[in-house]
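Researcher: Let's do a round of design. I'm pasting the structure tokens now; please hold your answer until I've finished.
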């Protein structure tokens, strides 16, 4: 999503005859801002002190209709020689061929482009040819050929995925060329809320980020409105969505990492569809896992978030009790009968969560399921102990037990947790066999393995 600014006219829905001039601006980091030269308010009843919430603002600017959603007035003031200005911030903006009402944010088709999508797909639509004279060695002819890609589709439950090529002419007569990219389309079987589409966009963004080890953000989100009711076929209106992207601020500071897995490695569009279906109810895991990738945080926070991602995933996908609930309830009652009545309430509270697996056991089970030992060449129980000890020392601050893990150790343990969660998600999503081997051979994983092995070697027996 590129930043832009444009002057235009703006009004409240149903009040097209009362338009106000203003300037709309969008920045991926700061979001959408509207600066009005005037006011939507009745001048005699203006409240300059309280924020005003407006669900929808309509406008036209830059030769496009604009719909601003979930707007908050950030400031209102008078300026010499006596006119008012108002500033609004919007959570979402839709720009394109139609105006939308607050109850019309439902779509059945979206096309997405991401900054790292071309590298993740891992193929090129452009071929280069050279013809050299065999005698003189001179260049006789050189050509760049772009072969448009036929869309690839895969039908899944309730939606269809498609991958297509996108290209534009670039350069000049002196330096001609092509700019190629790819687009992922999701065609839903029925209209879905934009919030659900946002969740799918985030899921794709997170997968590309995790498997390329580089911050990924959407460059373009294009949506198709439902067909207008009436006789005969009609061209569907198209709008583009704009929203604040906190991860965008990390693009300049983050370096491109090793691509751990590409689209072809995971199994193409069928695997991508399984990923979308699986992670829709597990957004919290991805958010915790990638929080340090999308924002600058302390190593301690990075470590805690990684531990939380692992524990949350285990709670969602593995049994969360050591004994069957009925059996454990009877066991607690038996214990309570053997203590005085005045202590039974206290004992019951102490035993409330004692039937749940301990963190170390959860980590061991996750590591064994995902195959972490084969990827970073570590002993799963020893690794789980190191993570658990580091976490407990930070939480409990037990005196006399040393300083705990260093900042560097917390960082590398957090990275290993992130890889373990990714390995488990890869397996839960049914990616192609051999993904763990491809990840293991990446230089960044080899370096991570050496750091983790150093930490485990230094662990007391």
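Researcher: That's everything. Go ahead.
Model: Designed sequence:
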């Amino acid at each position: 999503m590129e930043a832009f600014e444009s002057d235009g006219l703006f009004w409240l829905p149903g009040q097209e005859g009362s338009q106000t001039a203003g300037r709309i601006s969008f920045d991926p980091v700061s979001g959408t801002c509207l600066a009005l030269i005037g006011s939507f308010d009745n001048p005699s009843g203006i409240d300059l002190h309280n924020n005003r919430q407006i669900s929808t603002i309509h406008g036209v600017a830059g030769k496009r209709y604009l719909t601003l959603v979930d707007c908050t007035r950030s400031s209102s003031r008078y300026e010499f020689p006596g006119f008012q200005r108002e500033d609004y911030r919007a959570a979402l903006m839709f720009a394109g061929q139609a105006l939308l009402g607050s109850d019309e944010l439902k779509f059945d088709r979206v096309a997405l482009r991401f900054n790292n999508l071309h590298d993740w797909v891992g193929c090129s639509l452009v071929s280069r040819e050279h013809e050299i004279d065999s005698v003189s060695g001179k260049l006789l002819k050189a050509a760049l050929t772009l072969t448009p890609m036929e869309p690839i589709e895969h039908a899944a439950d309730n939606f269809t995925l498609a991958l297509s090529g996108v290209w534009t002419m670039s350069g000049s007569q002196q330096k001609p060329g092509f700019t190629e990219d790819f687009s992922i389309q999701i065609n839903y079987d029925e209209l879905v809320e934009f919030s659900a589409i946002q969740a799918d966009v985030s899921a794709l963004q997170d997968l590309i980020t995790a498997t390329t080890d580089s911050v990924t953000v959407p460059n373009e989100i294009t949506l198709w409105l439902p067909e207008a009711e009436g006789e005969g076929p009609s061209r569907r209106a198209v709008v583009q969505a704009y929203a604040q992207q906190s991860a965008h601020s990390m693009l300049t500071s983050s370096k491109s990492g090793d691509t751990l897995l590409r689209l072809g490695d995971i199994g193409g569009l069928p695997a991508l569809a399984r990923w979308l279906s699986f992670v829709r109810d597990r957004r919290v895991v991805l958010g915790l896992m990638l929080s340090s990738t999308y924002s600058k945080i302390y190593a301690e926070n990075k470590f805690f978030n990684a531990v939380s991602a692992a524990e949350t995933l285990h709670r969602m996908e593995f049994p969360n009790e050591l004994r069957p609930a009925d059996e454990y309830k009877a066991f607690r009652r038996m214990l309570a009968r053997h203590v005085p009545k005045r202590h039974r309430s206290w004992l019951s509270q102490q035993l409330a969560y004692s039937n749940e697996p301990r963190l170390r056991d959860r980590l061991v089970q996750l590591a064994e399921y995902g195959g972490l030992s084969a990827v970073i060449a570590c002993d799963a129980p020893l690794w789980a102990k190191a993570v658990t000890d580091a976490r407990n020392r930070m939480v409990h601050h037990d005196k006399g037990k040393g300083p705990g893990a260093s900042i560097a150790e917390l960082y590398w343990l957090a990275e290993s947790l992130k890889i373990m969660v990714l390995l488990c998600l890869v397996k839960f999503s049914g990616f192609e066999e051999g993904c763990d081997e491809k990840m293991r051979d990446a230089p960044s994983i080899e370096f991570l393995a050496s750091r983790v092995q150093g930490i485990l070697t230094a662990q007391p027996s």
